[in-house]
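Sequence design from tokenized structure. All designs in this work follow the same two-part layout: the structure record, then the generated sequence. An example of the structure record is given first.
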């Protein structure tokens, strides 16, 4: 005789064993995230990016996403973003009434673009067929307590510029720029659109950075997270390894205490 708690266990188990998300490539196949610096990563700590790639190569899992390797309490942050994005795409596609703009690659039709060591998976593309120019779309969920005067985040600007560069290269379209739409996760009527400028210089800087990260050993990359306003260290799975590298770089002395103070306790 099955007990009600067996049903609860079965539901929990089903959630824990959910499929990992895979990203189809624009040119066919499935994106191997371990081989590219993605647009969502490019503005984060260089050492963390490289250590993430090595972890992915060794385990097949992305340490930043909700997987069997990660405790479920960390899923909320990522799932909230996915849920808000689904909400936007659902409403946008059902309510779309513009003849001037064509929306492509939203929701289930999302694709990843690659070039060199860079990849990107935009939330959508808006194409104006009058001049074959496009805007890259990025949808972001936002905590209701966010200080909106500080938006858009620099990492999000970088994400849009890298994505725009990759789309232009793959689809042979002219980049007009990007649009980031921040949506309050608790009140979807609070929405903050930001137009993002695209320049070739900005795109080239990101390309150089991606190549530098992929061709450098983690210990030779700067621990940028320690000095970043993005709380990279707080969400990093490599604090122990990073601490060892910093200590080694300081002639074997243990600077863990200093690091811990700098990084608000993430090395503790
Ligand atoms: S602990 Fe901080 S500085 Fe070190 S790799 Fe992670 S994010 Fe970068």
């Amino acid at each position: 005789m099955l007990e009600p708690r067996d049903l609860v266990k079965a539901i929990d188990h089903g959630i824990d064993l959910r499929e990992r998300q895979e990203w189809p490539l624009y040119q066919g196949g499935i994106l191997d995230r371990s081989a590219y610096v993605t647009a969502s990563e490019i503005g984060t700590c260089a050492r963390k990016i490289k250590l993430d790639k090595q972890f992915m190569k060794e385990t097949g899992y992305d340490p930043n996403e909700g997987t069997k390797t990660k405790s479920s309490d960390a899923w909320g942050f990522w799932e909230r973003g996915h849920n808000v994005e689904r909400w936007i795409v659902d409403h946008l596609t059902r309510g779309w009434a513009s003849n001037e703009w064509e929306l492509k690659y939203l929701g289930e039709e999302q694709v990843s673009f690659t070039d060199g060591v860079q990849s990107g998976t935009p939330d959508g593309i808006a194409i104006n067929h009058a001049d074959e120019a496009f805007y890259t779309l990025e949808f972001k969920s936002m905590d209701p307590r966010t200080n909106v005067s500080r938006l858009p985040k620099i990492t999000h600007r970088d994400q849009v510029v890298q994505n725009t560069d990759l789309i232009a290269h793959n689809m042979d379209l002219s980049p007009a720029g990007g649009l980031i739409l921040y949506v309050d996760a608790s009140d979807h009527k609070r929405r903050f659109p930001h137009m993002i400028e695209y320049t070739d210089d900005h795109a080239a800087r990101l390309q150089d950075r991606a190549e530098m990260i992929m061709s450098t050993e983690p210990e030779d990359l700067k621990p940028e997270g320690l000095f970043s306003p993005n709380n990279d260290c707080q969400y990093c799975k490599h604090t122990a390894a990073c601490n060892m590298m910093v200590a080694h770089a300081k002639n074997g002395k243990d600077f863990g205490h200093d690091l811990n103070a700098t990084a608000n306790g993430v090395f503790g």
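The pocket of iron/sulfur cluster is lined by residues 45, 47-48, 51, 223, 225-226, 232-233, 236, 238-239, 242 (CB under 6 Å). We note this feature because it recurs in several other targets discussed in the main text.
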